[in-house]
Design a protein that fits this description.
Layout: E1 3-6, E2 10-15, E3 34-38, H1 40-50, E4 55-58, E5 60-62, H2 65-76, E6 85-87, E7 94-99, E8 105-110, H3 124-129, E9 132-138, H4 142-158, E10 162-167, H5 178-181, H6 183-186, E11 191-192, H7 196-203, H8 208-213, E12 222-226, E13 232-235, E14 240-243, H9 257-270, H10 275-289, H11 302-313
Parallel strand pairs: 1-4, 1-9, 2-7, 5-6, 9-10, 10-11, 11-12
Antiparallel strand pairs: 2-3, 7-8, 12-13, 13-14
Bound molecules: adenosine-5'-triphosphate and magnesium ion.
Amino acid sequence: MKILCIGMMVCDTLLSPVPSNILALDSVKIGKPSVCCGGDALNAAIGLAKLGNPVSIVGRIARDANGKFILDECGKYGIDTSGVVYEEECATAASYVLIDEKGERHFLSEKSIFAKLSGSDVGDQVIKEADIVYVGSAMAMRKMDEGGIKEIFHKAHSYGKMTVMDAAANLEDPERDWLSYLAPAFMETDVFFPSMDEAIKITGERDPELIAGCFKKFPMKIFGIKMGARGCFVTDFKEKKFIPCPEGLPVVDTTGAGDSFMAGLISGLAKGMGMFSGAEFASCVAAKNVGSIGGTAGIPNYEEAFDLYQSFYK
Ligand SMILES: Nc1ncnc2c1ncn2[C@@H]1O[C@H](COP(=O)(O)OP(=O)(O)OP(=O)(O)O)[C@@H](O)[C@H]1O
Ligand SMILES: [Mg+2]
């Protein structure tokens, strides 16, 4: 099963240690900068590749050094980038992460390119070649929210593909009735698995079952909520379950936890798992990932994740 990931592709540069009075200083020596991939589509694509799936990606990057870095990294993981779109005006999305002496992170970000991604960026061919089409960032890319996701998923459905979506809300998002606003996209979504904050923002409800009730009117097959260290909730609107995280594993860095969970879920579904097993398998992938520093560094291979799944849930 080949998976097409659509959405954010970001180059993160981590700088450390940065003194807290940096703006009053002329020049400071720091350690070796660490450059890495970020953004939900890119993180999920890397996760899916590490789990052994054939993967393609569509997003916008510029012909700049950060864009080249992203393409090189995709190449290392065997991710098909033939559908990536080159942007002429904006730079490749970038975050510069200043890590102070206490380990606290301070982000300088430039991501105006996100507003440029649109439904027409995703060609028929990449959709036809995939079995599952994943959009990582509802609520974060204007043209995608205003019809792009619907257009892509509608096309995917017309070719008989499965559609999977995550959300990517942040504090600066406009106040709006997201449930109505995204309704056309939800009508074409088979699996929607946002995090708790996003689910609350979309529905205005705080209880997982009440939240799920808001999505019942759509033809969605699986709805779930990622709940951080509390695990996740999943339902097909007939059966439902709270799934705890595997216990006793170290938690070092939760960056990319949600994206690794989605990669695990899609891998499980691609292998024929049902919604409960798929969410349990996803919880194992995420639990392993939060044990290492970096958005995708701890994502295990399929066998390792499956061993944890069998020992914890079966
Ligand atoms: N502290 C933790 N211990 C174990 N597992 C965790 C922890 N935090 C997150 N996870 C796993 O990762 C999944 C996703 O985490 P979370 O709910 O924070 O997603 P998210 O908010 O989308 O994350 P992200 O910031 O990466 O977008 C959880 O459902 C859980 O399975
Ligand atoms: Mg998330």
